[in-house]
Amino acid sequence: MKRLWDKGEPLDKRVLRYTAGEDYLLDERLVPYDVRASIAHAKMLCKQGLISAEDSQAITNGLNALATSHAAGEWKITLEDEDVHTALEKHLTDTIGEAGKRVHLGRSRNDQVLTALRLYMLDAAGELHKSALDAASALKKLGKQNKDVALPGYTHMQQGMPSSVELWANGFAAELEDDANNIVSALQRADKNPLGSAAGYGTPGLELDREFTREALNFTVVHEPVTAVQLSRGKAEAALVFELSLLMQDLSKLATDLLMYYTQEFAFVKLPENMTTGSSIMPQKRNPDVLELVRSAAATINAALLEILGITTKLGSGYQRDLQRIKPPLFRAIDLAGASTEIMVQLISGIKFLPENIQLDPSIYAAEKAYQLVTNEGISFRDAYRRIAAELNNDE
Ligand code: ARG
To answer: HSE-up of 21 (CA within 13 Å, CB side)?
Structure first.
């Protein structure tokens, strides 16, 4: 079988190469999801009396076998296939024959790609949620291990108030837990069944059961009306990448603190040796490259968000091929946020604080002293503040 839209006319190879671009490579990760969606669709067609029970069974078995052989590395999507949808239908027809040609009744690659992407994003968000919570746990553990270690609390990068390793670590942990929760709730937009919307205008003349595929695929609602489906492409993607961008901001701030704590001048921490890298010229170096790359990953993910929003901003309604270009920034952001979070879990677990190098400037207790004056002498905070400030000036 050739392309799904092949009507016998020759296709300029250059056009295929340009329009498919890297899409066929990116679609590799969508194989299991397109299989799931196609099985649900075939079962629905059978329930509606549009294909026979034997054909539905053959399609289900054939697709399951293809998912297994794909996972085992036995086949890949090629440029000639153009995308995951075509590749699966081609392989299915090659293996089960005629029945394979019946699966595309009442659907389009437009609703197929959205279904596969949504199922994939829901899974990916689950993993990102877990990694962010792992990072939060590692920080809480680090805080607990260093319960009694004091740390200067900085404002404007100047020592401001006494703090502790535990307070510092728990602050990040709390924000990471919040990020984890928001990653999952961002996907409410993806939790709608696109199947049955077909090219974007439903299937006039063909009775499909969109509720059946909704239930089979575990979506909370059917995405209605059919014209809303293509309008929504890019929104769940942007919502997820926005949350990843916020997650990365927290990891980036954590990285920046640690980079400062790791300088020879501060030397508040020792990083695990297997987490540092060497220099080709300076034998003594143990560089914190991981932290620097995590910090800059935040910029890459911000850019991915802008890329997604830029693609969808000026489109009219209905499917347009521009939408395909949302996949690269989406996958880039998911992969990078996942990898950055995971490496940070390992790094955090190996951090050693060096209390002997952590010195709090005596002035750091100034606000605390002013509070004592207020409680002990009943004077206003403003007067107490001035008295302490004057005392500090006299000491100079
Ligand atoms: N690769 C395409 C995408 O991601 C799949 C849908 C193609 N649809 C079409 N009408 N050409 O958008």
So the answer is: 10
Q: Do 216 and 196 form a contact (C-beta atoms < 8 A)?
A: no
From the CA of 245, how far away is ligand 1's center (Å)?
27
Instruction: Determine the CATH number of domain 13-105.
Output: 1.10.275.10
Catalytic member of 52, 279, 296, 317: 279
The residue type of 106 is: G
Task: Return the best residue to mutate from 4, 25, 104, 110 for the ligand 1 pocket (most ligand atoms within 8 A of CB).
Answer: 110
Please check the confidence at residue 258 and state whether its pLDDT lies above 80.
Answer: yes
pLDDT band at 4 (very low <50, low <70, confident <90, very high): confident
Please confirm, yes or no, whether 129 is among the known catalytic residues: no
Highest CATH level, class, for 110-206+219-357: mainly alpha
pLDDT of residue 396: 66
Residue list, ligand 1 pocket, CB within 6 Å: 23, 83, 109-110, 113, 319, 321, 323-324
Catalogue the E-assigned strands of the chain.
150-155, 158-164, 192-193, 221-222, 269-270, 352-353
- State yes or no: pLDDT of 1 exceeds 70: no
Decide if 223 is catalytic: no
Q: What is the pLDDT of residues 33-89, one digit of tens each?
A: 999 999 999 999 999 999 999 999 999 999 999 999 999 999 999 999 999 999 999
Cβ atoms of 222 and 192 within 8 Å: the answer is yes
Whole-prediction pTM value? Answer: 0.94
Q: What residues does each domain of the chain span?
A: 13-105, 110-206+219-357, 362-395
